Amino acid sequence: MTQVEVIEAVLGGNDEVAAQLRERFDAAGVRTLDIIGSPGSGKTALLEATLPALPSALRVGVLVGDLATRRDADRIARVASQVVQINTAGGCHLEAHHVEKGLAALDLAALDLLVIENVGNLICPVGWDLGQHAKVGVFSVAEGDDKPGKHPPLVLAADALVLTKSDLLPYVPFDRAFFEQDIRQMNPSVPILEVSALKGDLAPWLTWLEAFVAG
Amino acid sequence: MTQVEVIEAVLGGNDEVAAQLRERFDAAGVRTLDIIGSPGSGKTALLEATLPALPSALRVGVLVGDLATRRDADRIARVASQVVQINTAGGCHLEAHHVEKGLAALDLAALDLLVIENVGNLICPVGWDLGQHAKVGVFSVAEGDDKPGKHPPLVLAADALVLTKSDLLPYVPFDRAFFEQDIRQMNPSVPILEVSALKGDLAPWLTWLEAFVAG
After folding, report:
1. Which CATH homologous superfamily contains domain B2-214?
2. Residue pLDDT, tens place only, B170-202
3. How far apart are CA B38 and CA A143, in angstroms?
4. How far is B40 from chain A (nearest CA, A)?
5. Alpha carbon of A81: minimum distance to chain B alpha carbons (Å)
6. What residue ranges do the domains of chain A occupy?
7. Cβ within 8 Å, pair A40-B121
């Protein structure tokens, strides 16, 4: 009984902070994304390619979560006006209080879009509300076509799924129909957006993202 | 205070069960590996290629952890005499009690090597003792050369690191020297074993594994 009470208290705290964050985002007119995917699924590379391809008037900030190093923030700083690296010191996901701390170093009034690149992990980040308006799941073709079927919580929670590294399709075993079939059994309507950040092929994702920012 | 006590009790329980498991493995003469890597790093493909390449007298059992599906166990059943799929129902790592339950379906006396393929996750499984004799970390070249630097706990804990999907090296940005440099700063002596399961290039890993089984 004690254990359940403690867990509920922790989750309650997160959801309260997340609700306050969402109010702040809405008041500032900032649309906010939580991007979730495995380590090496290409989340940072996707942002590096995406940000310069967006309309130049769009002001984008990025919060990047990692266990260690500031490398992702350094990469993204070249293409975003505001970036904050959050090191979780071993933690496997971001929580709302991490985002709250990160916002202290951001000027929300000078942003239209805030992207939260979560810690590389297909499992743990899914259940945590960060005050975002949408969750985006990222799978790379190099991970294999069976990853959605083995990770139902993310597929069920995602507002969009990005399939990255399509340039590797000729070199890896990957059955696109099998990949989609697993997703459709769980989430019949989620957009599946195939991209190659390396080649700059981002069209379906950019279309989705611009519509998302427009609200 | 209550929260800390609850967590300590849970961890204490795990380490006790893990110690009992290690005693059982030792009594049965079974060497045991815990394999940890991201979703899609190629853990299952590595086992599919490895098991048929081992000396035929070597009897290998596999415990496979996943959030959902029995697909990995079905794949490995073609090459291993004994396989058990453990579904964690959303859990992000295996714990000693999962392994204990899995052993109920295995005949330890008929095994020389037990491989535990952990849930695909570079973070959460690292700290949990499963009674294994060694931990093997898996990184794929498709994940990028920066993953060891961003995941110190696994690099520090690993007895061996396998670099998979070397067949993709011509097609992905990956600096082998950078990858190794990060590892060496944390773990100067851990073997780094480059393989391609797709091409059957497994030599350094097979050599390490056979020496490990020999004790």
Report:
1. P-loop containing nucleotide triphosphate hydrolases (3.40.50.300)
2. 999 999 999 999 999 999 999 999 999 999 999
3. 9
4. 4
5. 24
6. 2-214
7. no
